[in-house]
Amino acid sequence: MEKTICKDTAEAQIKFLGTAGARYVMARQLRYSAGVFLRLGAKKILLDPGPGTLLRCSKVTPRIDATELDAIILSHAHIDHSGDANAMIDAMTCGGWERRGRFYAPRECLEGENRILLNYIKKAPEEVVQLEEKKTYSLDGLQFSTSLRHHHDVETYGLRFHLEGGDLSFITDTLNFDRLAEQYAGSRCLVINVVRQSGHVGRKLKHLSLDEAEGLIGEIRPEYAILTHFGKSIVNKNPDEIAREMTERLGISVEAARDGMQFDLP
Length: 266
Hints:
Elements (H helix, E strand, L loop, with lengths): L3 E2 L6 E5 L5 H7 L7 E5 L2 E5 L5 H7 L11 E3 L5 H4 L2 H8 L9 E5 H4 L8 H4 L4 E5 L4 E4 L2 E8 L7 E6 L4 E5 L15 E7 L16 H11 L3 E5 L3 H4 L3 H12 L2 E4 L5 E4 L1
Parallel strand pairs: 1-15, 4-5, 5-6, 6-7, 11-12, 12-13, 13-14
Antiparallel strand pairs: 2-3, 2-15, 3-4, 8-9, 9-10, 10-11
């Protein structure tokens, strides 16, 4: 069931088209692997369109018209984040007939062995912009910044959208590291990818655990925190109960995202 949180006048709307994290959950579609849709003022932005995003846009309520997107942003090239990127660019540009919208992505998504952007699609957006660490970008006046490069298997950055009421930030896939929390200090709303229930032996899988996510939320202390991008171990638990217990321990509003959930930032 879709869920809406906060019904005050919203400065930002966050629609979780999917909440799957790691490829086991994606492959079995235990949760949808679609991206996150943002309505920030007049701008419509899609983050990390994994497999199934185009379909989910047409199935959610209210329906998301991909031809009205202003931008698509990729945090990194892994398939659970980028599987529908070409399809969404094609849809945003009406099959390439209208040269419109912007596509933002790290260099590895645009060139080299991990590139995900097809040559013929590359010409469709109005602009293709390479993301780099600690840089600020402007989407027709909407400002957003990248973090330091995250500790992940491929080139990856977190994002901060600079809104009048306070920053909306996304901690994307990463291993925990000393300077991670400071990248998001002062965020009003923090969305954090948390794949693992507990720490992992040898740190082979470079994703945050629940304990690490809770530590980051406690250090950053946003007004709102939302957990998403769940791996199998968290899906098999009760993410809503996990978030409720975090809220009690931290004294901060923590929510567990659900497929189709909309969060309105007042």
